[in-house]
Specification:
With 364 residues, the chain is mainly α. The chain has 12 helices and 2 strands, in the order H-H-H-H-H-H-H-E-H-H-H-H-E-H.
């Protein structure tokens, strides 16, 4: 009787698989247990609800919290289907799943794997819940706003359009825009006062002043313990993300064996591989040319300086003001273009009704 040969490499991969799935679970917001992934691999119905909730947290633009947990499972499932469809998810079987969580755990696991293959999902989730220790302002320096692009396609309305309702919506949008700008100006004024009053209190001479979080820690020392626990939790998630990146190939080998079936899965896997290879090639070329991609947009720490010196990663206030003014000019140009399109639409609607006199409102 021949003895069966044992492959030590296969045993090592089998031992690394639970670690990879556990690291993935810890790196995601309120991630399910590794047992949920194993049951979903075999399409067990008890894993469906947890994966619907996980996909909803991953695809939601808002950070995870108690408000998201209170949303019904059927609503979460509908939102997940809509979000995946808008991102070009290729499998039609997901749209046909029941929304009560009774079945479809394998399809949901495939959808989660598709999202993981398209982009750094754990890193994005970690950035959403990141604890900002400094006072930051999100600035977008992309060149996409510089061009207005092609005009919006003309779409015929399915029913009669109320002109007064359109005018009311435009007025509401303009009011909210001014309210947002006013709140940002007030926030910057308050931050400037805090930076001025705490000047010389920071141990880092490059900063010179305290942030709102640091000033709050001095006012309420007990709150510092809560902040410390939050930072420790964030550090554990960061360690889980690093562990997941090291063990990620093991997870993909586990998903390539019998999880997907049919030509749709083969095409989706081929498209995902091509997309990942293309993005990796572009990222590598960017690193080789510029020794690291410069962030075109993102949070910049606000630092009050009076000597005119700025660090390598700092953003001067004058530069920030110029960037915001440039963006404001681009947005105003886009607004004028949209107003012109609205004038044409309203003129067409008014001309279709005999005996109607159309008087445009001021600013339209």
């Amino acid at each position: 009787m021949r003895r069966r040969r044992v492959d030590p490499a296969a045993g090592a991969r089998a031992g690394a698989l639970p670690e990879a799935i556990a690291a993935l679970s810890r790196s995601l917001p309120s991630g399910p247990s590794p047992e949920i992934f194993r049951r979903a691999k075999f399409d067990r119905p008890e894993a469906t609800s947890a994966l619907w909730q996980l996909l909803f947290r991953v695809l939601s633009p808002l950070p995870a919290g108690n408000a998201l947990a209170s949303i019904a499972l059927e609503v979460q499932a509908r939102l997940v289907k809509s979000a995946l469809c808008s991102q070009g998810y290729p499998r039609l079987a997901l749209a046909q799943l029941p929304e009560d969580g009774s079945k479809g755990s394998r399809e949901l696991l495939l959808a989660l794997s598709w999202l993981l293959a398209r982009g750094p999902v754990p890193e994005q989730m970690l950035a959403q819940t990141r604890v900002p220790l400094g006072d930051e302002m999100t600035v977008c320096q992309c060149e996409a706003l510089a061009s207005l692009g092609p005009p919006a396609p003309h779409m015929e309305a399915e029913g009669p359009v109320d002109v007064r309702h359109v005018q009311w919506l435009m007025g509401k949008l303009r009011f909210r825009w001014r309210q947002l700008v006013s709140s940002q100006q007030e926030q910057c004024a308050l931050l400037s006062k805090i930076h001025l009053y705490t000047r010389g209190c920071h141990s880092d001479q490059n900063l010179g002043h305290l942030s709102v979080t640091e000033a709050e820690m001095l006012r309420d020392p007990e709150g510092g313990q809560k902040l410390l626990r939050t930072l420790e939790h964030e550090s554990r998630r960061l360690e889980a993300v690093l562990a997941w990146r090291r063990a990620e190939p093991v997870f993909w080998q586990w998903m390539a064996r019998g999880c997907g079936r049919g030509p749709e899965w083969s095409a989706a896997r081929r498209a995902s591989r091509e997309t990942v290879e293309k993005e990796l090639g572009a990222l590598q070329r960017c690193w080789e040319q510029d020794s690291g991609p410069a962030p075109a947009h993102g949070p910049h720490r606000l630092v009050r300086r009076e000597d005119g010196a700025a660090g390598d990663r700092d953003l001067r206030a004058a530069e920030l003001i110029r960037t915001l003014r440039s963006q404001e000019a681009c947005l105003e140009a886009v607004l004028r273009q949209l107003q012109g399109q609205c004038r044409q639409e309203l003129a067409g609607l008014a001309g279709a009704l005999p005996g109607l006199i159309w008087i445009p409102p001021p600013g339209l």
